[in-house]
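Quick start: read one record
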Amino acid sequence: MQLIPATPAPEFKGITGWANSDSITMKSLKGKVVILDCWTYTCIFCLRTIPILKRLQEKYGKHGLQVVQAHSAEYHFATDHANIQRALKRYNVSFPVAFDTANKTWEAYGNMYWPKHVVIDHRGFVRYEHAGYGQIQEFEAVISELLEEMGSKPQLDADDKNPDDEIFDTYGMHFSGMAPETCVGYSRLRRFGNNQTAKPDEANFFTDAGVHADNTVYLRGKWIWNREGVSYVSGGKERSPAIMMKYNSASRVHGIMGTSDGKPGRAEIKLDGNYLTKEQLGKDVRLNEGSSAVDIEWTFMHNLVRTDKPEVHEIEIIPRSDNFVFYTFVFG
């Protein structure tokens, strides 16, 4: 947690809606210690922070703490109110959430990354900032200090570890040497591992040489390379189109996936050329008549693979609907 010079907290800007609350202003929050959580539901570090914020609100809410989230999108699909609402339901978020769909509040606080936590005192001044995922101890020491400043003395023992939560079990934790998060849109990825050069915003037919480098994305079949991801194009000569990545180390594998038309889609998941075993199934994958498949009902971070410890595998995602879109590999 970084102590910064006290400055008045900027007002919410560009908010297009609220969840779990009527409209809120920074002025209306004076008299409380506020944690403003600038996050997005496609960021794994943001998701890992949710249980900590829930615990802090539960523990200190009656003593004057209020957690408020500003959902600032990293991908265009995450500006959709319906998608944000589904994410809040999936992760059981009950804080007031501002829909910062144009990232105006995010910019007002000088943000450059997800997540960013801004701690505001009871007079409405920004006092601390925290970037990325952290431990509850970092937050709790600051919250206790600012609550005491406003005359509230909870007299509560500090938590010595992060709370247990299903989010940690589903998405795993970051560790040294883990495979890197890899976005496949041309705004972030320079090229695929395939020999041929792909043309942005056009249908490209990718052939697979079969030899794959670690932590590199390969395609097979016909795909459009978009700014934020790749869209499958049916009708090509390749009978087994796929997006593939041989990851060097992970115990959880996730794919940010969706569909091009908002209708349900499906993809099959393989590891090292084989369908997943029951023990390898991620939360969002099901065994279906001998195959392992994920049904895609909306665009979010699907948990595809889970193992007891970090392992090395090649994941292969095979579109089984014409509307399949893939954005990012994420690991834990």
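Residues 17 and 99 are 5 Å apart (CA to CA).
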